Amino acid sequence: MARPKKLYEGKAKILYEGPEPGTLVQYFKDDATTAGGKKRGTITGKGVLNNRISEYLMMRLEEIGIPTHLIRRLNMREQLVREVEIIPVAVSVRNAAAGSLARRFGLADGTPLPRSIVEYIYKKDELGNPVVSEEHITAFGWAAVQDIDDMMALALRVNDYLSGLFLGVGIRLIDFKLEFGRLYHDNGDIQIVLADEISPDNCRLWDIATGERLDKDRFRLDLGNVERGYQEVAKRLGIIPESAPYDLQGPETVQ
Known about the structure:
- The protein has helices at residues 46-63, 99-105, 134-139, 145-167, 217-220, 226-236; strands spanning 6-9, 13-17, 23-28, 31-34, 39-42, 70-73, 78-82, 85-86, 89-96, 112-122, 131-132, 171-184, 190-195, 203-207.
- The protein has 255 residues and is α+β, with helices and mostly antiparallel strands.
- β6 (70-73) and β7 form a beta hairpin.
- α1 (46-63) runs parallel beside α6 (226-236).
């Protein structure tokens, strides 16, 4: 069987042509980058775990009416997804100060915020992925006002649901970043849907009891045992059994 045509390769995933028009195969890599791509490494089994975690979370969100690009998981490292036009602005929802927000405002990591804060981030590594306003987004034509309203509403619903879901398994959702895309329907309608992934790569997840970080910050901050943080999230969500081995590499080539 011929390998599908590669359409795009990013820092954490590869997109291939899908088996049907309007579909793509999304492949999860073990590669890890941070600091705008300046720091690079490999987290063994990350692609397998992120594939499973993202599938699980997007399926739960679909159940409460949040539209996503996910169709189904294909294997250990691949998902079949709907082809969408990615909006070049990510939406970051922050429930506590951490990372760049903490640095910008001189706050200690983990400081609770008076309310959840939503920020928009222009996805441009070479510019340092700057925080932008709605005025920037509309002035430069990245998204329309209605698109922004839809992304904001969906992001806040995702935050409400995921905060409760993670709380139930002893995890504090500090913040997360979402990507959205435009799904073009055959009848001419255009729908804003959740795209990319939801995983420890783009969520800050802290153990409620100990404050231990169970996400990509373990790689960013050189905390060690990075793979175990990702696997702990998967175990608590019931995606993999408690007795699962930590060496989860999975197939390295698209099937």
